[in-house]
Amino acid sequence: MKILVTGGAGYIGSTICSALKDHGHTPIILDSLITGREEFTHEHIFYHGDIGDKAIVAQVFAEHPEIFATIHCAALIVVPESVEKPYDYYKENVIKSMNFFYQLAELGYPRVVFSSSAAIYDVVPGFMVTEESPLKPNSPYSRTKYMMEMILQDFTHAYDLRGIALRYFNPIGADPQMRTGMHIKEPSHILGKLVEVALGVSPVFNITGTDWPTRDGTGIRDYIHVWDLALAHIKAVEQFDAVITADADLETPYVVINLGTGNGVTVREMVDAFEKIYGQEINKAEKPPRPGDVAGAYANANKALELLGWEAEKSIEDGIADALRWGEIRDEILNFEGE
What we know:
Structural class: alpha/beta
Order of helices and strands: EHEEHEHHEEHEEHEEEHHEEHEEHH
CATH class of the largest domain: Alpha Beta
Number of helices: 11
Distance between the termini: 36 Å
Largest sheet: 7 strands, parallel
CATH architecture of the largest domain: 3-Layer(aba) Sandwich
Helix content: 40-55%
CATH topology of the largest domain: Rossmann fold
Shape: globular
Number of strands: 15
Strand order of the largest sheet: 3-2-1-4-5-7-12
């Protein structure tokens, strides 16, 4: 099958493209390269353009009319940056996605797999959330994901669209074949920062927030290997119609699925695991929470197993090891000169 992947030159999107290719499908990438990397597009059909550009979106479908589904990953994703630049986040994530979803309906391509986020959940007792748990997005970034979900759900009710929203927990690691990995020069997520300290790029790892109501005071997350995450998307597109039929209201063909391991790991526990894989301690410091931070959550992933036949297989140690391997070769693959 041909699958359009918006944001396919990014960290998760590029991994999804590799997984699609490995499973005999043809990914077609549409990416503006605002944050994505052209180096990740070389093995695939690539359109350099923006989802907000109706002409290039129409061109993609005119040149590939047999596209079966769209995986919509294109978005800005950095929580602290969203607090500083909310206009950019609402424009890029919400307004452009709204117009893009509507154009898909107009063009007659109804199947959408949407990259959503566990950041939209409220903090709940015990920290484990199901798809029915209360929502309380706490930053401009997470509110954009919440709004994108609401728009997609409303559009599936009113127009010829069907949607599967996959709520990601915390991706770690890299493509096990080292084709792609975390591409941001200065990553904001925990494992990227740990790797930077291990490789001597940064002097210290900051544990941001030590007074959360968790077992050790640090935030709790569900760290899922990016390859496991990519494989869930393969299941979602291959079984798209069956998933909609099995779980969605016929008047609103829209399904929400958590993608996580089902295990909560605190920041301190993540640091401990990293140091064991790395083989030595790293410099650490305790700091206040960043703007937009929350105590966290981890997934109840039963629905993914029930509907997709998917569950995470790789361990947190696999993710750490792959991230370290990628960190050592990243600059050979990505050209950061002039940036």
